[in-house]
Amino acid sequence: MDFIFLAIPVIFGIVSVYLANRAVSHGCKRKKALYMQIASFCVIFIACFLCPMVAGAAETTEAATEAAAGAMGMGYLAAAIATGLSCIGGGVAVAYAAPAAIGATSEDSKNFGKSLIFVALGEGVALYGMLVSILILSKLG
Fold first, then answer.
1. Residue 62: band (very low, low, confident or very high) from pLDDT cuts 50, 70, 90
2. Residue 70: left (phi > 0), alpha (psi -120 to 50), or beta?
3. Threshold 0.85, pTM exceeds
4. DSSP class of residue 32?
5. CATH for 62-141?
6. CA-to-CA distance for 12 and 66, rounded, in angstroms?
7. I need a labelling partner for 133 at 20 to 30 A (CA). Which of 3, 25, 106, 127 fits?
8. Residue 55 above 60 pLDDT?
9. How far apart are CA 96 and CA 115, in angstroms?
10. What are the residue ranges spanned by the domains of the chain?
11. What is the 3-state secondary structure (H, E, C) of 64-115?
């Protein structure tokens, strides 16, 4: 039974990615497909947040161990949010910095080192989020 609760968000995420790709290939605007994708991931997040059995599926009999399992599930959820949001932020930063760096390098090849630093700073945001999630996971285990 726990497998079903864990599989529902994964299946919903895969289906939403498939439907967004299909909509774009059939002529839907990319911006609208992106907004639909963000909305579907928000629905998945809310479903996982409201159903703690999805985040931490553990069957226990004592109230204290159930509370500990719920706290552990919320810790896993916090680590996932830290990694996910930092990767989204890093992706947005690189999406704006990389084309500007390519343009600056094409105009003057001396700007390559400077522009590479700005692209690497965007990547650093994702690494910091991953480090925070590793720290959270080390406290749980």
1. low
2. alpha
3. no
4. H
5. 1.20.20.10
6. 27
7. 3
8. no
9. 12
10. 1-57, 62-141
11. HHHHHHHHHHHHHHHHHHHHHHHHHHHHHHHHHHHHHHHHHHHHCHHHHHHH
Cα–Cα distance, 33 to 60 (Å, whole number) = 42
Q: The tokens 């706290």 sit on which residue?
A: 71
- Helix, strand and coil content of the chain, in percent to the nearest 5, comes to 90, 0, 10
Model confidence band, residue 52 (pLDDT cutoffs 50, 70, 90): low
- Amino acid identity of 136? I
| Tokens, residue 40 | 């579907």
Q: CA-CA distances (angstroms) from residue 119 to 16, 94, 136?
A: 30, 6, 27
Nearest of 17, 11, 83 to residue 47 by alpha carbon: 11
Reference 95, options 122, 130, 68; nearest CA is 122
In this structure, the chain runs to a length of 141
The residues, any chain, with a CB within 8 Å of residue 26's CB and separated by 6 or more, are none
Please compute the mean of the pLDDT values over residues 129-133 and round it to a whole number. 90
Q: What pLDDT does 5 receive? A: 63
